[in-house]
Structure formats: structure tokens, C-alpha cells
TrEMBL record, chain A:
The keyword Signal does not apply. PROSITE patterns: HIS_KIN (PS50109). It comes from Streptomyces beijiangensis. Coiled coil: none annotated. Residues 288-389 form the Histidine kinase domain. The keyword Lipid metabolism does not apply. GO terms for molecular function: phosphorelay sensor kinase activity. This is Histidine kinase.
From TrEMBL, chain B:
GO terms for biological process: monoatomic ion transport; plasma membrane acetate transport. CDD domains: SLC5sbd_u4. This is Cation acetate symporter. The keyword DNA-binding does not apply. It comes from Streptomyces beijiangensis.
């Protein structure tokens, strides 16, 4: 029956899809013979192999990254064996004759101190061993020797020595980039810490002043506000963990708003819409509170007498969508753009910029802030948060 | 039966679903509400939502139909559907929630740190989801055809359209409230008519239900085509294994556990689910038994799945029968809508996560629904409950080993998981597909392929364990941290 055969096809659909997906990933654009001369093709091959070796090296010099990279690098140099070491031990050996790895660290000890290339015979007792000669080149980052690359050959070869030197320089550049990545991460971590510390001075002062104004007229309210204040600061100064849950973050925003209301009273209206499904979503610590603070600031800035802020957290499939909207003074899009490029220099945008960078850092560039605004037209900030991302666990 | 009542009931259910979905958000305007609005979903609400999503057409219509045709042996279906949650409670619920995974591919990635396993699991999730969606749509077609005489394709089209519009237009902004409402609606829609039917049966002098097959069952009724009559004992074991172990891997069930705030409440949610589902499953057998008395000819026409829908009219009749019939019809449509929307959202979620081409959730929703819709329109003849049983078999042979070993065994490796998924889940998927295509000769081959769980689940476990033991070097470096996160209560971290 054709109907049932079609049904089988449909049920097999997932399998077919998977097959197609795998095929699509496996099949690269074909390098057919009409692309260039043999020399050009060799160049393409070399560049391709080099590009394959780059990603593991960008993770820094570890045993795993060295193991993955060594394979590619050996193809690149076309040697029988290739070895990567760090300052103390052999990280990876690719190719034949890894019985040499035992004595290797002694042989390259001088190189690791001086940072100069070294060629030496292997002096192998095994007569069948094809590795008779080796060239060792240092891997340097910022003039520090991190490790070495050792290439083995059956006989002395000036070409190999030269090639190994070039490859080592290329590897060094990749390692420098890895170092750069690491320092960028450290910078962002430092910024997160700085943001935590920054939250308060003005806010603490204003809150305490507002609370003080209630102490005589309404001691009960003053007490409640002080407790909110204590809770809020405890959350903000929390040391442990870089991530939190949306429920906790909203709770902290609630406390923040209670303190703001103590100052501005009826001038500020806040509406909250929450789909309860998204409350357990994990997200970077204090990444919404600065946005709300920003909305409050914009909303009450200048001649505006009343301000309305809407916070909504909605369920959008595998993501949560948080929107923070105010009807305040807004901002000139050009100015906002320069702030988000890091050129603003005025304090009001620092919070936005920082949140944007942290979101991009954690979830990738597709998850930066989306801001709709215009001068005098209010501001709407949209944050999308994936419900799951490896390594992100709210605690 | 009066068509008007039924059409009105179905329309009301559809409207209520859309309205609750669109306006069920918690909104606060004053400070005191803020805390209430940002409170996480409690175990009772979440359990009602899980039950609402879980009780599908197979439960609402299928079980009664099977009891009508095959008698009390078929009670293993409700038992299995419920017991699956016991297994889930004991082995999976709390650790799965603590893993922070939203979908099964997330769990695989978090535990095994491998993109390859993640992709493979996604394929299986989509496959199982589609397999599960087909009978939901077919059930809708059957219901609408019986109630209003509409052509068979109309029901699937209506459900598919409503679900796609509601989900894709962002109408399901708060699926929890929708699904919880659907549970209570389904319970009411079966309970109230059942009470009247039992009263009618007492008025009738309480005739006893025949234990054997109703007279005149032809040798080749539909269910026989699934090989149950050849080897009933084997088929029963196949059913038990599939339903006991398959529940934990159903994509729409897993997604719902994410809504619980922590592992402890996930466990409490599961206990409440057991109670809610257990209560519900007392009802379909009543319909099945009464159907044997008053509608036994349905087993001849192949419309046994319609027992629940037709009984009120048969036994009570008049306006009362019409009203009760309309209530049942509304409940049945709630069953199609809730399960279909839950599955569609789960499948669409995985589709958007995995493929770079389908960036937008709306597009993914369309795709998630289009393929099972085509399947529902092209296949006929497999009883609803049996088709659902096949989805359970696939889930039991692929996700159960992955979840149980992933949570309880430190030495699981990515190659092991891939081998288990391919051999266990893959063989089950192929067996089920071949069965649905109808190309298998009757007898043992057919029985083995129609009820694959008995052999495919052990195959999946064995492959996973053996290949993992053979590749000890590939144990993910983060295993210890992952295990700690799964098993330590949140308060102790």
C-alpha cells in the first residue's frame, strides 16, 4: 500500500535527516583539479592543514590541545615524528619512535633556558629506528619560552630545520592569541567584580537618606526598608558563583525597586509580567538589575514627573525573553551605539555596556542586548537567555 | 448524536486553551504582588500540568477501545503509563532537574561533554516526538469524524492549525496554566459521564460484563495485525518494558521538569503526578467494560477507539446523552491539543537548538507539526494506543539507558552512549517503522518487531556498558563534577 510505504518514509524521516546532516557536514566544497596550478594547490593544502591545527592551540598549551595539534603539525612538516613539550614534560608525541620521549627533556633543557634553536643527533641504540636526527625549536610568548617543538628525521635536513622554525613561530603566534583570550576573560571577570563593587555608593547613600526620612514619621516602614536594604546588599555582595536564577534576580530587583519607591513614591509605577516557566533559568549574576537601574534613571530623569516601567519575562521555546521597558527620556541611538562600542565614557551607559559584554561572553554574540530607543521615546531593552548552556548553573 | 452540542463543546475547549495560553501570565502592579508573581511553580500546579500534557488521546480514547476489544489484559496499558512515573521518580526526577538540562540533548551534552552525542540524541528526540504526534492527530480525525461526520483529514488539520497558531503566534505564553487546566478538564470530562453511565448500568439491572472476546470478533481485527493475538504474553511484556522505561525519555515530559525550582520539588511533583494520573486511569477501563456490554459491535467495525465518545449516546440518549457526549468530546479534544502542543513545543525547541537553518521558533513549530501531520494523513489502521506504545518503545531503548547510566554510572563514555543509542534506539526505531509500513509477515517476526522493547532495551544497555568499558580513556573529565551536581541536594552545594 502506497500510504503505508509513505508512512514508513515519514517515520524514517529523522534518520534520513540525520544522514543528510552528517553528509552535509562531511562534504566540504570540492577541491577539484581546475583550481590553480600544483603549486597553488600545495599552498591551499598547507594553509588548510595549518587552519586545522589552529583551533586546539587557541586553548593554550595543554596535553589535550598538544595531542590534537601535533597530528596536524606533523602533516604540515611531513616528518616521521613530531613532539610538543612545555617547560617540564613531553605533552604530545605524534608519529613513530616514542621511546625517544624519555630522554628528550634532557636534550632540550638548554633550549628552554636560552630560547635558541637546536639540532642534534638522536644517538638511538635501536638500529632499525628511522629517527636519527632532530631539530628543536622554542615556542615563545612575550619573549618567554613556554615549551618546544621537536621534529625528527632520518638524516640532517636544512629544509626541515627552516620549516620547523617557521612552524614554531606560527604556533607561537597562536599561543599568544590564546594568552590574549585568557587575559580578555580575566578582564571581563575583573569587570564583573568591579561592577559588583560599583553598584552601591550613590545608591547606598540615597537609600539610607530615604530610609532616614521615614524613621520618625513611619518607623515600621523604615524598619521594613532597612531589612530590604540588608537583603539587597547581601545578594549584591555575594561572593560565591557567577550565576544565579531568574527568580533570585527578580527578587533582588523587587528589593531594589522597594528602596527606589521609598525615594520617589508615586512618581514610579512598575508592572511585572512573568511566565513562571522561566523562573528557574540560570543567568549571569546581576545582569538584569543594572538594566532596571538604568530604566529607573531614564524614567525619572529631567522634567518627567511620572514614569512607568514594565518588566516582562516570557517563555520562548528553548530561550527566556526578558524585556525591560521605560517611558522616560530615551537616548539618541547614535550616542547609545558609541556607548556600546565602549567609547561613551559617561557613567550612565557603563551598566549597559558591561551587561552586554558579559552576555556575549557567556552565550555568544547572538545573545547581546537588543535596545530600541530614540530621544524622548523611552527605551526598551530585550535580553534573550538560553535555558541551558553548558557550564551555566544557577546556584 | 446531536452535532451542534459536540461542535460547541470542541469550540469552547479550543477557545479556552487559546485564552488561558495568552492571558495566563502572572501580572503584578503593586509591590506586594511582585513577590507572588515571581514565585516559582509549585509541585501541585506543575504536576497537574505534567499530567495534562501526558494524558493523550491514547489514554483518553485508546485504552477503553482496547479493553473493549481484548478484555482485561489491556489493563496493563494504564498500569504501564502510570508505573513509568514511578521509575522516573526513583531513578531520574531529582538528578535530571539538578543537572539544569532543559531538553535531553542538553542533558547528554552536560553529562558527556560531547557535541556528537548531543546531535544524536536530538535526532532521537525529534523522531520519538514525531512518532508520538501521529496518533494524536489521527485520534483527532477519528473523533471529529464520529461526532460530526467530517472527513478524516479535518480533525488532524484542525488540531495542527490550532497548535501551530497558538504556539507560533506566541499565544502559549504560559503553557503551565493551559496544561493544568487541560488535566482537570479531561478528568471532569471522563468522570462526570462515567458516573451517569454507571447509574444507567444499575438501572439496567447490572448485567455482568462478558469476560471473553465479544461474539463475532473476526479473525483479523486491527489489533491482531499488530501481532498481539499471536503471542499475547510476549506482547504484554513488550508493553510493560516500553511503558515502564519509556516515560522518562518523552521529550514533553522532560521539558516540564525544568519548571520545578529544584531537585526536591521535582521529586514531589512526580509523586503528585502519580496520584493524579493513577486517579485518571481508573476511568477508561469503566468505559471499556461498559462498552463490551453496550457497544460490542464497535470491535467489528474497527472503530473501537470511539467507544468513549459513543457510550453516553448509547446508554443514556436524549438531551442528557447529547450533553454528556459533548463533554466527552471536549475532553478528547483537550487531550489532543494538550499533548500535541506540548510535543510540538518540545520538538520545535530541539529543532531551534540544533539546526542553524531553523533559527526561528515559529518556523520550527511549523516543521515540527508538518511532518507528523503528513504521517497522520497517510497512515491508517494502527490503533491509537498501539502507536503511542511504539513511541514509548523507542524512548525506552534509547533515552532510558542514557539517563539511567548517565545519572548512576561514572564510567559512561561518549562512544558508549553513541553505541547504545544507535543499537538500542536505532533498532527499535527501525522495527517500529517497518511495522507501520505493514511489510512484515505475521507470526513471530511481526510480534518481535511490533513490540521491540523486550530485546531492544537490553541491547541498548549492553551496548552502552560494553563500549564504555572498552573506551575507559574517553570518560569525560567533568564526570565527577557532573555527578556531584546531580546527586547533592542544592542546599548542600
Amino acid at each position: 500500500m502506497s500510504g503505508e510505504a509513505a508512512a514508513a518514509l515519514i517515520v524514517l524521516g529523522p534518520l534520513l535527516l540525520a544522514g543528510g546532516f552528517v553528509l552535509g557536514r562531511r562534504t566540504r566544497p570540492t577541491r577539484t583539479s581546475d583550481v590553480g596550478t600544483p603549486v597553488e594547490r600545495a599552498t591551499f593544502e598547507t594553509l588548510h592543514t595549518a587552519s586545522l591545527a589552529a583551533p586546539p592551540l587557541r586553548a593554550g598549551l595543554t596535553e589535550e590541545s598538544a595531542r590534537k595539534a601535533a597530528r596536524r603539525l606533523r602533516t604540515l612538516l611531513g616528518t616521521d615524528a613530531l613532539c610538543l613539550t612545555d617547560g617540564e614534560k613531553v605533552l604530545a608525541w605524534d608519529g613513530t619512535g616514542d621511546h625517544h620521549s624519555g630522554q628528550l627533556m634532557d636534550q632540550v633543557a638548554g633550549l628552554l633556558d636560552t630560547g635558541r634553536d637546536k639540532a642534534f643527533p638522536t644517538a638511538c641504540d635501536d638500529l632499525d629506528c628511522p629517527l636519527r636526527w632532530a631539530v628543536a625549536v622554542p615556542l615563545t610568548v612575550d619573549h618567554r619560552v613556554l615549551g618546544s617543538l621537536v621534529a625528527y628525521a632520518p638524516r640532517e635536513s636544512a629544509v626541515l630545520a627552516r620549516a620547523a622554525g617557521e612552524v614554531a613561530r606560527w604556533v607561537s603566534v597562536q599561543l599568544e592569541l590564546a594568552e590574549l583570550d585568557r587575559s580578555r576573560t580575566q578582564l571581563i571577570e575583573a569587570e564583573i567584580k568591579a561592577l559588583r563593587a560599583q553598584i552601591s555608593p550613590h545608591f547606598i547613600f540615597n537609600s539610607l537618606a530615604a530610609i532616614a526620612s521615614f524613621v520618625r514619621t513611619d518607623p515600621e516602614r523604615a524598619r521594613e526598608l532597612l531589612l530590604e536594604f540588608a537583603d539587597f546588599t547581601r545578594y549584591s555582595f555575594r561572593r560565591r558563583g557567577d550565576f544565579t536564577t531568574l527568580a533570585d534576580e527578580l527578587h533582588s530587583i523587587d528589593q531594589y525597586l522597594a528602596l527606589v519607591r521609598a525615594r520617589f513614591g508615586a512618581r514610579l509605577t512598575v508592572t511585572l509580567q512573568v511566565a513562571p516557566e522561566v523562573l528557574p533559568v540560570a543567568l549571569p549574576f546581576l545582569c538584569l538589575q543594572p538594566l532596571v537601574e538604568n530604566a529607573v534613571k531614564h524614567g525619572l530623569e529631567g522634567a518627567v514627573t511620572r514614569s512607568r516601567i514594565t518588566i516582562s519575562a516570557l517563555d520562548a521555546g528553548a530561550e527566556a525573553e526578558v524585556v525591560i521597558e521605560d517611558d522616560g527620556t530615551g537616548m539618541d541611538p547614535e550616542r547609545l551605539r558609541s556607548i556600546l562600542r565602549g567609547e561613551g565614557g559617561d557613567s550612565s551607559g557603563i551598566g549597559l555596556l558591561n551587561v552586554d559584554e558579559r552576555l556575549r561572553q557567556v552565550y555568544g554574540d547572538a545573545y547581546g542586548l537588543v535596545i530600541d530607543t530614540g530621544a524622548g521615546a523611552g527605551m526598551k531593552v530585550t535580553v534573550r537567555i538560553p535555558k541551558y548552556r553548558a557550564g551555566v548553573h544557577g546556584s | 448524536m446531536s452535532q451542534t452540542y459536540a461542535v460547541v463543546a470542541v469550540t469552547v475547549v479550543v477557545l479556552a486553551t487559546v485564552l488561558i495560553g495568552g492571558f495566563g501570565l502572572r501580572i503584578s502592579r503593586t509591590t506586594s504582588d511582585f513577590y507572588v508573581a515571581s514565585r516559582t511553580v509549585g509541585p501541585r500546579l506543575n504536576a497537574a500540568a505534567i499530567s495534562g500534557e501526558y494524558l493523550s488521546a491514547a489514554s483518553f480514547l485508546g485504552i477503553a477501545g482496547l479493553v473493549l476489544v481484548h478484555g482485561p489484559d489491556m489493563l496493563w496499558y494504564p498500569v504501564g503509563y502510570t508505573a513509568g512515573y514511578l521509575v522516573l521518580l526513583l531513578f531520574v526526577a531529582a538528578p535530571l532537574r539538578r543537572s539544569g538540562a532543559y531538553t535531553l540533548p542538553d542533558f547528554a551534552e552536560g553529562r558527556l561533554e560531547s557535541q556528537a552525542v548531543r546531535r544524536l540524541v536530538s535526532v532521537f528526540v525529534i523522531g520519538a516526538g514525531w512518532l508520538y504526534l501521529v496518533p494524536q492527530l489521527q485520534g483527532a480525525g477519528l473523533t471529529l469524524a464520529i461526532l460530526t461526520g467530517a472527513p478524516d483529514w479535518l480533525g488532524p488539520a484542525v488540531v495542527a492549525t490550532v497548535v501551530v497558531l497558538a504556539v507560533a503566534a506566541g499565544g502559549m505564553r504560559s503553557i503551565t496554566f493551559v496544561q493544568a487546566f487541560q488535566y482537570w478538564l479531561k478528568l471532569t470530562a471522563l468522570l462526570v459521564p462515567a458516573l451517569f453511565l454507571v447509574l444507567a448500568w444499575q438501572d439496567d439491572g447490572r448485567p455482568s460484563v462478558p469476560a471473553g472476546f465479544p461474539a463475532g470478533v473476526p479473525a483479523l481485527s486491527i489489533a491482531n495485525s499488530l501481532g498481539r493475538a499471536d503471542h499475547p504474553l510476549y506482547a504484554t511484556y513488550g508493553l510493560i518494558v516500553a511503558t515502564f522505561l519509556g516515560t522518562m525519555g518523552l521529550p514533553h515530559v522532560v521539558v516540564r521538569f525544568y519548571t520545578s525550582p529544584d531537585g526536591r520539588s521535582a521529586r514531589r511533583t512526580t509523586v503528585v503526578v502519580l496520584a493524579l494520573i493513577g486517579g485518571f486511569y481508573l476511568l477508561p477501563p469503566v468505559y471499556g467494560a461498559l462498552g463490551r456490554l453496550y457497544a460490542s459491535e464497535l470491535s467489528l467495525t474497527g472503530d473501537a477507539d470511539a467507544t468513549v465518545l459513543l457510550l453516553p449516546d448509547r446508554m443514556i440518549g436524549g438531551v442528557g446523552g447529547d450533553l454528556l457526549g459533548a463533554l466527552v468530546a471536549g475532553g478528547a479534544f483537550a487531550a489532543f491539543l494538550s499533548t500535541a502542543s506540548g510535543l510540538t513545543m518540545a520538538v520545535a525547541g530541539v529543532l531551534t537548538q540544533e539546526s542553524r537553518g531553523v533559527r526561528h521558533f515559529r518556523l520550527a513549530t511549523l516543521l515540527a507539526m508538518a511532518i507528523p501531520l503528513a504521517g497522520a494523513l497517510l497512515t491508517t489502521g494502527v490503533p491509537v494506543a498501539d502507536a503511542v506504545g511504539m513511541a514509548f518503545a523507542v524512548s525506552a531503548s534509547s533515552f532510558c539507558p542514557l539517563l539511567v547510566l548517565g545519572i548512576w554510572w561514572r564510567r559512561l563514555t561518549p562512544p558508549g552512549a553513541v553505541a547504545g543509542l544507535l543499537l538500542g534506539g536505532g533498532s527499535a526505531l527501525i522495527a517500529v517503522s517497518v511495522t507501520m509500513s505493514g511489510a512484515v509477515p505475521p507470526g513471530w517476526p511481526h510480534t518481535l518487531l511490533a513490540w521491540p522493547a523486550v530485546w531492544s532495551v537490553p541491547v541498548g544497555f549492553l551496548a552502552m556498558v560494553l563500549v564504555s568499558l572498552a573506551t575507559p580513556a574517553r570518560i569525560p573529565p567533568g564526570t565527577h563534577a557532573a555527578m556531584t551536581r546531580f546527586h547533592l541536594p542544592e542546599a548542600l552545594r
